[in-house]
């Protein structure tokens, strides 16, 4: 019987940053968020995003450094 799901190499898990504070002040800056990695403690500071959905699932630049390098 053929194997339907062969053992394919998987990419390593990414460490994602978490939103610790969010807000928006006007139309020019609709979504400002503070991102922090809970694993290494890296604080990315205030970052501007167009929507709340864009702010989610941002990888940590320190924990994922080898993966993010070109």
Fold topology:
Elements: E1 18-23, E2 31-36, E3 43-49, H1 52-55, H2 65-68
Antiparallel strand pairs: 1-2, 2-3
Spatial arrangement of strands, main beta sheet: 1-2-3
Order of helices and strands: EEEHH
Contiguous runs where pLDDT drops below 50 for at least 5 residues: none
Relative strand content: 25-35%
By helix and strand content, what is the structural category?
A: alpha+beta
Total strand segments: 3
Shape field: elongated
Tally of separate helices: 2
Instruction: Report the span from N to C terminus.
Output: 40 Å
Overall mean pLDDT stands at 82
Please estimate the helix content: 10-25%
Task: Round the Cα radius of gyration to an integer and report it.
Answer: 17 Å
Largest sheet: 3 strands, antiparallel
Q: What are the salient characteristics of this protein?
A:
three-stranded antiparallel beta sheet, 70 residues, alpha+beta, 2 helices
Quick structural overview:
By secondary structure, this protein is α+β, with helices and mostly antiparallel strands. It has two helices and three strands. The mean pLDDT is 82.
Could you explain the architecture of this structure?
With 70 residues, the protein is an alpha+beta fold. Strands 1-2-3 form a three-stranded antiparallel sheet. The longest helix has 4 residues. The relative contact order is 0.24.
